[in-house]
Amino acid sequence: MWFNYASDKPFGQMAVITLVLILTSRYFILGTEKGTHLFADIQDFAFGLHGLNSTSAPALIAVRNHIVSNYINQEKIFRIHVICTGLAWGLMPFQLWASFRKSDYNRHKQLGWFILSVLAIGMITSFWIARPIRDIEEAGGMTTEFGFYGMAIATSFCAIMGVIKIKQGKIEEHRNWMVRAYGTMWGAFFWFRIGMVVFLPLVPKKYNHGLGLISNLSWMVGWMGADVALSLSPLKKGKVKAVVAAGNAGELNKKDE
């Protein structure tokens, strides 16, 4: 499955992430301002399909101007954020790829610490980037701001829990929490942007908190997607079958006695 975050062979996800990261490189190739306008142009095109423009929906121009000015005013922090979150998200599938992981557990451990390091930097910088949107009511204000904080806190919490579990020697629980961290990153890095383009135009024009709603739901969708994937993963199914088999064996032993 392409979006099975618990997959031992996440090749489809790797392809999508690679494409997204290539598109994200526009900030460094074209510059921050042109790169930001490029995404805004795609978003405006989607809005246009719904018959919306800056005249019929004044919030569009306010959101666009804020994003461009915010990224330019905090260009260094923004670029650090993009690099670190991009590295973390791009490397996470390799940690889940079974054959790659099992071929060298020492590399798995070292790569894991590196991912956690860049992830920490990416999550910390996100707070600086999110703060200015509080003053833009047309973009959801504090609702959107807290949605961005939620992305960072949820991803960090899942990753920290993964570290705690591996320190306790609980390998399966470590994997589960890291899959959740990976899922929340998909929500924050990918589904949030898809939601902006697809769902924001459907929000009533007079409702200013559409972006805030999407930002809050995106990381939740990623987390829930991770838990669904974990519940359907072969490892989970295999464990359940083993428990059932053990139970059946126990009943047979009792009958023999």
Layout of SSEs?
Layout: H1 11-24, H2 26-29, H3 32-49, H4 59-73, H5 75-96, H6 98-103, H7 105-130, H8 142-167, H9 171-198, H10 210-232, H11 234-256
Task: Report on the architecture of this protein.
By secondary structure, the chain is mostly helical. It has one domain (11-256). It contains 11 helices and no strands. The protein has helices at residues 11-24, 26-29, 32-49, 59-73, 75-96, 98-103, 105-130, 142-167, 171-198, 210-232, 234-256. Helix 8 (142-167) runs antiparallel to helix 9 and helix 8 (142-167) runs parallel beside helix 10. The longest helix is centred in the C-terminal third of the chain and has 28 residues, at 171-198. Residues 240-252 have low confidence and may be disordered.
Key features of this structure:
about 260 residues; mainly alpha; about 0% strand
